[in-house]
Predict the structure.
Amino acid sequence: MMRILLIALVVLLAGCAGGKHGIGANDPTVIKFGVIESVAPIEMDASSGAGSTAGSIFGQVGGASSGAGRGSVVGSVFGSVLGGTLGHQAGIASQPGLELWVKLDGEDQSTYVMQPGKPDAFRVGDRVRIVRKKGGMIVELDTHPAR
């Protein structure tokens, strides 16, 4: 029985290590062209989560040293939660971003994209390309508008 489990584990690990598998593994890059219909400046979340992690660790250490026995365990858990929450609040940051509506060439629909950027990066009427790869989309100015 142990031998079967070991073989199954080896086969499973070999399958996981063998290249690109799963959703999006073979997603090609798709490029579409269009014209900017609207541009709106927004604030995007730019926090990394590092503040939450650091706060949680310091809170856990501080809480663990606040008592003995069960008090130490309770203090550790409470300190971890409180430190993580306060660290997250301190780590929240924002960056300038854009909401873009792009009228696609040869299609009856528009595409909505949110991306980091400054408000003067695009203007209504600009020729752009939308590049989609690895599950994300980004709008770029079309530097070769002779299409």
Notes: The chain has three helices and five strands. Helices lie at 2-17, 50-64, 70-91.
